[in-house]
Structures are given as structure tokens and as C-alpha cells.
Amino acid sequence: MARAVVMLPQEDRSLLRYELGAASSFEPATEPLKSRVVYAAVHVVADPFAAQGPDAAATLDWEATLAYRHYLWSMGLSIAEAMDTAQRGMGLDWSACRELIRRTAVEAKAARGGLACGATTDQLPPGRVVLEEIERAYDEQCAFIEDAGAAVVVMASRHLASSARGPEDYLRVYDHVLSGLSRPAILHWLGEVFDPHLAGYWGSRDLDAATETLVGIVRQHADKVDGIKVSLLDARREIALREHLQKHDVRLYTGDDFNYMDLIRGDARGYSHALLGIFDAIAPAASAAIRAMDRGQMDVYEAILAPTIPLSRHIFQAPTYYYKTGLVFLAYLNGHQQHFRMVGGQESARSIVHLGRILMLADRAHLLRLPDLAASRMRKILAVAGIE
Hints:
Layout: E1 5-9, E2 15-19, E3 38-41, H1 62-74, E4 78-81, H2 94-111, E5 115-119, H3 131-147, E6 151-154, H4 158-163, H5 167-179, E7 185-190, H6 207-220, E8 225-231, H7 235-246, E9 251-254, H8 260-265, E10 273-276, H9 278-281, H10 283-294, H11 298-305, H12 308-315, H13 323-333, H14 352-364, H15 371-384
Parallel strand pairs: 3-4, 3-10, 4-5, 5-6, 6-7, 7-8, 8-9, 9-10
Antiparallel strand pairs: 1-2
Helix pairs in contact: 1-2, 3-5, 5-6, 10-11, 12-14, 13-14, 14-15
């Protein structure tokens, strides 16, 4: 059978004739994943009929958005909802998040799927505010999430980053938030590479000092902290923090989209669980790899995940916060949505050369469900860009 061929644009303005390989053969999960707790931070599908420019209110295609969550649950993954992967802070406001969380929680109950949802302070106007306002904003969002029946991910707050005078203000706010929760939460340390507004989080640009503040919060509230999601793209620092957390029986959820294979595998001293944006894109491979780990087949685990690393590093290349464009593009190539439009018009955030390489790297990682469809859709995107 003839393979699909696409002419992919290169940085030197040439075209590369690329022949796609066979369709992905990964299967849905038939039983829960056991070796690690695994969340995929999931993207949203924009309504293609609505205005989606930088100043437009987010309007979602609810059918496609929720269908994608069922797809991830079918792979055995839990879902981290309304996180930065869903364009939180980049087009998706609290009003849209409330409806997203409400609808996803209903579907999670029906599917018996794992669900944790992000709480932050984005209902407040931008800029500096007093700590009491930050605490009330966190309280509102956490209560809404818990009332919906989901676990809370306490996301980093841009308002706290700009308003805190030092570590003591972080200790105060997190003490307040955690004390008000009815069940353990996941705390999120999102590095400034993902969001420049969060530089100096935990009260210091010195990451050692910041880590001490975070560990102090965990030490005081270990019974209210399920784990810490760390998105610093620094494997050495993550491992060091992981060893601190193990003393308090608190999980480390890797958010390192560059080094996840090694961090999840771990070593004799411990391992990381996962809460990753890239698992939105590589869910079939991630599921198959963890199932191989469950069977003790670590060589198979690595063989499955190793080809996904170049794809992830490409999608998350600087400026890293535009990684959502790559996730949505791959979902479009794979037929999970009928268009390549994004909230806030973010489909324009990556070049046509970048998008072409996503197709090639996804193919090499055995992640294209229908190569002919992917090739056809790539050609349409190329034509819009003036490359035919």
C-alpha cells in the first residue's frame, strides 16, 4: 500500500519530501494504570464559528472538548482540567473555566475518570492586590471545584507573585487555602519559562530559597498536600525536591516535558508521578508505557517513550508558553477536532516550519492514528500558508 507523502517546509526555505509511516497501533487501556499516578493536562477546543482573537471572550466547542476528555480517560489517564494547557491565563478566563470544570466533572462521574482542576485567582483584575483578596479568590475557586466533586490543583497565582512582599506572604496565603480544603490538593510550581509573570514565586528568585519555602508549606500541611507538580524543566532540582517530599509521604508530579521518561522511571532513591501537558498529545504512548512498567517491562517502557521525547522538546521549545499550539495542532492532525483554531487566536503562535516538524516527529513516535488524514490536513495548512 502506498504511503502518504507530504512536502514539508524547512528553515532554509526548501521543501522536504516526507513519507509517513504506518498508523499508530496503541490500544486503549483495559484496566487502571498501577505503577504511577498519571494526569494529562488537557487542551480545549475553540468554537470555530466564534471570534477567537486576543481580546475576544473564550467560546468553546463543548462537544469536541468533552469528547477529547473521554478519549484520555479511555487511555487510563486522569485529567488535570483548567490548567495552563487549557490556555488558562492565555485566553481562558475564570468565567469559561467555571463552565469547563462543571461540564468535565459531570462527564468524569459518568466515565469514572480521575479529575483534578486548577484553582487560582484569575477572577481578580490584573495587578497588585491585598492578600485578603487573593485568599478570597482562591477560596471561591477551590470551593467551586470541590463542590463539583473534583480534586483541587492549587495553581500559582500571578496576583500573589506581584503582591507578596516575601516568603512570609506565601506561607500565610497557602496556610489559609490549604486549611480550608476538605481533601488533599496538588500544589503547582510553574516556572517562569512557562509563565514570565511567575518569576520569583515562593518569595525569591533564588530557587534554593524558593524550594525551602515550598518545603516549609508541605511540612506544615502534609495532611492536606497530595503532591507537588513541578514545571521547572530542571531534572536535578526536581529529584532533590522529590527526596524532600518523600519524607512527608507527599508525591512529586513531574511537569518536566523534557525529561519525563527518566523522572517517571526513577532510580533506587525514588521516582516521580506525572502531571504533564505533553501527555495530552502522547496519551496512547504514555498509557502503553505505564502499562509496560506495570508488567515490569522497563525496556518496553523506554522503547515506547524514547521516540516521544524529540516531539515533546520541539513542542515545548522556547518560547515555551506557546506549547499549547502544538498540542492543538496534533489533535487536529489526528482527527480529534475538525479545525485548527484556538482560543485567543493562538494557532498563529508557531511557524509553518515548526508545525511541519510536529507532523514528522509525531509520525516517528508512532502517534498518527490515520496517516492519510494527517497528511491531507497538513497539506491544507500548508496551502493556507502559501506553500503548495
